[in-house]
Amino acid sequence: MTSKSSAMRFLLPSLFGAAFFLMPIPDGATITIPLAILVDAVRGSMGSVLPLMAVIIIVLGAALTVAATCLQELGKDTLSDRWSRLLRPSWIWVTIRLIGAVIAVAAYFKLGPDIIASPAVGGVLLNDLAPVILVLFLIAGFLIPLLTDYGLMEFIGVLAAPIFRLLFRIPGRGAIDATASWMGSATVGTLITIEQYEAGRYSGREAATVACNFSIASVGFSYVLASTAGVEQHFAALYGTVAACVIVCGVILCRIPPLSLIPDTLIDGRDRLDDRGADRSLKAAWTAATARAEKGPGPKGFVGQGLYAVASIYIGLIPSVFAIGGIGLLIAEVTPTFDLISAPLVPLISALGLQEAAAAAPSFVAGFADQFLTVILGASVTSEQTRFVIATASVAQVLYMSELGALLMQSRIPIGLGHLTAVFVLRTLITLPIAAGLSHLIF
Questions:
Q1: Could you read off the pLDDT of 320-340 as tens digits, one per residue?
Q2: I need a surface site. Which of 12, 14, 98, 206 has the fewest CB within 10 A?
Q3: What is the per-residue DSSP string for 42-55?
Q4: Structural contact between residues 238 and 306, judged by C-beta atoms closer than 8 angstroms
Q5: pLDDT in the model for residue 275
Q6: Rounded to two decimals, what is the model's pTM?
Q7: Is residue 219 exposed (0-12), middle (13-18) or buried (19+ Cβ within 10 Å)?
Q8: CA distance 230 to 375
């Protein structure tokens, strides 16, 4: 029988975490969650300080990375395993962090070419991305264990496993990752997935499948994207279209390369647990949840785990966002690269009955650099129906290198740039016909 203390250890953290990360709250024309309200409040109170803080953190993180790497080369290795992984990445990531520091300093202090400090490049990095990442992960980094370490994942996982295994070939706990993304933030959902993989609760294939299929933009941010595209008056239809695209993509992509070829083993090399035939009753869910809660960290472990989670984002992710995202934004602004890459899409877009195919095509590939680029480029298209499809794609394509891509490649999930590129292309090819087809029913 489950003891009263075990029940409370499961219920109290899990209910608070579920309310904070997942509880929908009406907010005008859309909905939000307590996490988003708190993030917005902190951002509002700190104002213009956040971009400078981001620059300082990026430069400091790059300096610590170089120092730790040099000390390792000199044979002075005193860091623990996890801090060594963070501060001593491969030389590729050392270089990326240095590039991120250079771009951050140039953008903030308006050094070098004017394009780096322009609103389309430096403005997006400093004013749109950095403040959100700084505040979001400071809060979420400490509180995500409430969702993952005290039994909620196990409770939902036992109950939802049959349908998630059948449709998406992933454990039922993937419902938590998806809900955290849809209601809160794609990066929060992805962070949960990474934490679950590193804790040995997802195989590499399962983690990659969850991250590449269900880490979609939140409802609130999706409304911002729709507004930028000028189709916010159709938001209910747009988000329904997004849901249809995400479900179909999830069903298909989990069964074909590259995701199907990722090793189905845990982080330590062991085979994934075969849970077919397991008890899926409410009693079994409760037992699994309370057993996990008993192993959850105490106050000291909770704080230590949170500090490392925040440090890994600040030192590892933010410089990568500036490097990878900055380069992508520069390419979009000063070269015809996206026009050339998107040329094969023009006949497909036309065949789907959408207007201004040539003008719209670059929007569908620019999202790989940053999803906001999709709707920024698409805003110049005059056809409302085409802008509707563009806004749908900006959410349903999921992967963008300025944030999610950088976060995944920094993680220990066995997924690289080739995987991300292939999945992005496949998601685009699946999403376009679905979104275009449904748009003809709306317009």
A1: 888 887 888 888 888 889 899
A2: 12
A3: HHHHHTTHHHHHHH
A4: no
A5: 66
A6: 0.77
A7: buried
A8: 9
The alpha carbon of residue 327 and the mean position of all alpha carbons in its chain are separated, in whole angstroms, by 19
Report percent pLDDT > 70 for the chain: 96
Q: Of 407, 314, 323, 321, which is closest to residue 56 (Cα–Cα)?
A: 314
> What residues have CB less than 8 Å from 265, skipping those under 6 apart?
203, 204, 271, 272
Cβ–Cβ < 8 Å for 394, 212: no
> Per the omega criterion (within 30 degrees of 0), is the bond before 336 cis?
no
**Average pLDDT taken over every residue of the chain:** 87
Q: Give yes or no for a contact between 407 and 191, defined as CB atoms under 8 angstroms apart.
A: yes
Backbone angles phi, psi at 297, to 5 degrees: -70, 150
Q: From CA 429, how far away is CA 75, in angstroms rounded?
A: 50
Q: Is the separation of the CB atoms in 31 and 24 below 8 Å? A: yes
pLDDT band at residue 1, thresholds of 50, 70 and 90? very low
Q: Which residues contact 381 (CB under 8 A, 6 or more apart)?
A: 356, 359, 360, 363, 387, 390
Query: CA-to-CA distance for 197 and 206, rounded, in angstroms?
Result: 9
Reported as a pLDDT band with limits 50, 70 and 90, residue 395 is: very high
Q: Is 81 exposed, middle or buried (0-12, 13-18, 19+ CB in 10 A)?
A: exposed
Residue 356 falls in which region: left (phi positive, over 0), alpha (psi -120 to 50) or beta: left
CB atoms within 10 A of CB 45: 9
163 neighbors 178 (Cβ within 8 angstroms): no
Both tokens of 143, joined, read 């509180």
